[in-house]
């Protein structure tokens, strides 16, 4: 399970805490957005972060992107610690595609300037080289050449996301963080963007960190899946292993909630019972025990370690009763 040595980027026991105050005169509290997460992404690999809203996916993505420092733990990029001194160099190699393709683009800039912006910020090439690079990227993402002189409001949502992808590709990154890149798009457009991302990855040997709540979409793109619940990593597995034999009860519940063609008529999908607890006061023991159908006394008191499932060394789950 240890991929740190060959990793492009690795998170080692990363936690992210936010201090908050309960009311104007209330006590200071700690919101535990991410707690002791260790994951690694290999060159050319796609890792998905999945989980419900509030599970810590986006916060963890911000740590990988260098937009937020972890409260504790370490981030390593190509083996070197990612800190304030090395972040500027690494940022060129780590780009982000955001959820809202309109809000992520400057409405006052033409597409040519939007795509060239990371080149300007990173001082890559002169104005002529940047313009040529923008024109080549517009073609690569499937937009017409006249798109260069147009503005974001003149494009559809899918086309705007193609512009955002072109901008992310401009500095020739090694890793792209895709934070819910399809959720604002029509279903018919989602498959086009997915196919584009896969084609670009094959051509450039890119790595992706794909953040999503949609397991049906994740299945078509990723190599491995990391399942987060209340800021904790509860399962980490190759895609096929996770979809065919999920080990953690939370993963099983998430997969059960995905609509499937061929499901027997009249058979109800099992919903996850209850609400996710507050990260201000996470449960003792296993954080999922308040909603788990397999809960036992040990679950309420002893936090389970993330360990391989029996007979499946590549698949790890944080559960006392994995199978």
Instruction: Report the uncertain regions.
Output: 261-268
Number of helical regions: 10
Sheet bearing the most strands, described? 8 strands, mixed
Task: Report the β-strand fraction as a percent range.
Answer: 15-25%
Termini separation: 19 Å
The outline comes out as globular
Main β-sheet, spatial strand arrangement: 6-7-8-3-9-10-12-11
Mean pLDDT: 89
Give the helices and strands as they follow along the chain: EEEHEEHEHHHEHEHEEHHHEE
Radius of gyration: 21 Å
Which percent range fits the helix content? 25-40%
Find the count of extended strands (DSSP E, 2+ residues). 12
Structural class of the helix and strand makeup? alpha/beta
What would your notes on this structure say?
With 323 residues, this protein is α/β, with parallel strands linked by helices. It is 29% helix and 24% strand. It has ten helices and twelve strands. The protein has an eight-stranded mixed β-sheet, sandwiched between helices. Strands 2-1-4-5 form a four-stranded antiparallel β-sheet, covered by helices on one side. Helix 6 links the parallel strand 7 and strand 8. The radius of gyration is 21 Å and the shape is globular. The chain starts with 8 loop residues before the first strand and ends in a 6-residue tail after the last strand. Residues 261-268 have low confidence and may be disordered.
């Amino acid at each position: 399970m240890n991929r740190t040595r060959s990793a492009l980027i690795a998170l080692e026991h990363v936690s992210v805490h936010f201090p908050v105050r309960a009311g104007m005169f209330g006590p200071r509290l700690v919101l535990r957005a991410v707690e002791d997460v260790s994951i690694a992404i290999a060159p050319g690999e796609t890792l998905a972060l999945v989980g419900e809203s509030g599970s810590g996916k986006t916060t963890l993505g911000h740590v990988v992107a260098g937009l937020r420092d972890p409260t504790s733990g370490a981030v390593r990029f190509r083996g070197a610690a990612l800190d304030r001194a090395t972040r500027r160099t690494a940022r060129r190699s780590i780009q982000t595609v955001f959820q809202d393709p309109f809000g992520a683009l400057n409405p006052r800039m033409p597409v040519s300037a939007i795509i060239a912006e990371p080149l300007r910020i990173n001082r890559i090439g002169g104005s002529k080289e940047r313009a040529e690079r923008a024109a080549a990227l517009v073609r690569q993402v499937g937009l017409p050449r006249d798109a260069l002189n147009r503005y974001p409001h003149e494009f559809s949502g899918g086309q705007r996301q193609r512009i955002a992808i072109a901008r992310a590709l401009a500095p020739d990154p090694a890793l792209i963080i895709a934070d819910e890149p399809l959720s604002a798009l029509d279903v018919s457009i989602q498959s086009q963007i997915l196919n584009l991302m896969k084609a670009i990855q094959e051509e450039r040997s890119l790595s992706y960190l794909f953040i999503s709540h949609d397991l049906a979409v994740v299945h078509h793109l990723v190599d491995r899946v990391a399942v987060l619940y209340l800021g904790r990593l509860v399962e980490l597995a190759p895609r096929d292993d996770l979809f065919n034999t999920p080990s953690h009860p939370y993963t099983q519940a998430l997969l059960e909630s995905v609509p499937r063609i061929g499901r027997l008529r009249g058979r109800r999908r099992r919903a996850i019972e209850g609400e996710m607890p507050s990260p201000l006061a996470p449960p003792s023991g296993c954080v999922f025990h308040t909603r788990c159908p397999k809960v036992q006394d040990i679950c309420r008191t002893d936090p389970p370690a993330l360990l391989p499932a029996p007979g499946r060394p590549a698949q790890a789950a944080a559960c006392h009763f994995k199978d």
